[in-house]
Specification:
alpha/beta
């Protein structure tokens, strides 16, 4: 069964720019339904990014996402080390700050990719990031995904694949 691992920008961009909580209730009801059914999930590092704002989005997540939604990324250390090794091997391309940010253990991106790598036949990452292979000042999620053959799509593509409307 295909399941979708959502990046923090799945929530943040939806809430701030496209689907405000007070207007686009159909979107948020659909997110809750998909989370309750286990079709979408995320990891603890994303939870940390969402739960440090003390805002409406954090309150919505706490009230609507099941306890099991945020998975423990520490279970994927072997895959994480593969992602880190890849990033370090690209030191001649990426600026030191880009590598430092990506390698920061508190940041979610490398762990998201590692989690998906652990079951890449069944997990698709959902992120609003787009591939920018020539960019030097930031490692975007699509770059290691492309290297490791991990599927990634954006929010609308996910809803289309699922045949969901709201």
């Amino acid at each position: 069964m295909q399941i979708y691992l959502v990046d923090s920008n799945f929530f943040i961009q939806a809430h701030r720019a496209i689907y405000p909580l007070d207007i686009a209730t159909g979107f948020w009801n659909k997110v809750k339904m998909l989370a309750d059914s286990g079709i979408i999930f995320s990891i603890d590092k994303v939870k940390n990014e969402l739960y440090n704002k003390n805002d409406e989005l954090e309150n919505w997540c706490k009230a609507n996402l099941p306890e099991s939604f945020f998975k423990d990324s520490s279970e994927k250390i072997q895959e994480y080390s593969q992602i880190i090794t890849w990033a370090v091997s690209k030191a001649d391309h990426y600026l030191p700050n880009a590598l430092s940010e990506f390698l920061n253990a508190d940041e979610a991106d490398a762990f998201i990719v590692a989690y998906a790598l652990s079951d890449k036949d069944n997990i698709t990452i959902v992120t609003q990031e787009i591939s920018q292979p020539n960019r030097k000042n930031r490692i975007k999620i699509p770059e290691p995904c492309n290297e490791f053959d991990i599927k990634y799509i954006n929010t609308i593509q996910m809803f289309r694949q699922l045949g969901e409307t709201f």
